[in-house]
Specification:
single chain; 106 residues; mainly beta; Rieske Iron-sulfur Protein; 4-stranded antiparallel sheet; 3-stranded antiparallel sheet; globular; binds FE2/S2 (inorganic) cluster
Length: 106
């Protein structure tokens, strides 16, 4: 089981911004959407591209390589050329700090 990893102070991660952190070798993008925080693996299931750098639109992020879109809340692939979900992770807010944890191996 991985530990909770500090991402950033809430004040640093303002709406529309993201931060990518390494959690035990996994690249996890934590995104602020209208004050809510969502954590998604920074890997497109189409061809392994990074999702960050793509366009954010509501709860969707578009892969900058070939345009697949993913739901930040569930990781679901929303359109071709990606068909499989990418991973999402739990977020915790404590004392004005955002934390994330990779719970895939619990
Ligand atoms: S690598 Fe993301 S759509 Fe192709």
């Amino acid at each position: 089981m991985s530990d909770w990893i500090k991402v950033a102070a809430c004040a640093e991660l303002v709406p529309g911004c993201w931060r990518v952190i390494d959690v035990d070798g996994a690249q996890i993008a934590v995104v602020n959407v209208d004050g809510g925080y969502y954590a998604i693996e920074d890997v497109c299931t189409h061809d392994g591209g990074e999702l960050t750098g793509g366009t954010l639109c509501g709860f969707e992020i578009e892969c900058p390589r070939h345009g697949a879109r993913f739901d930040l809340r569930t990781g679901a692939a929303l359109c071709a050329p990606a068909y499989e979900a990418t991973a999402v992770f739990p977020i915790r807010i404590e004392d004005g700090v955002v934390w994330v944890r990779d719970d895939r191996w619990d």
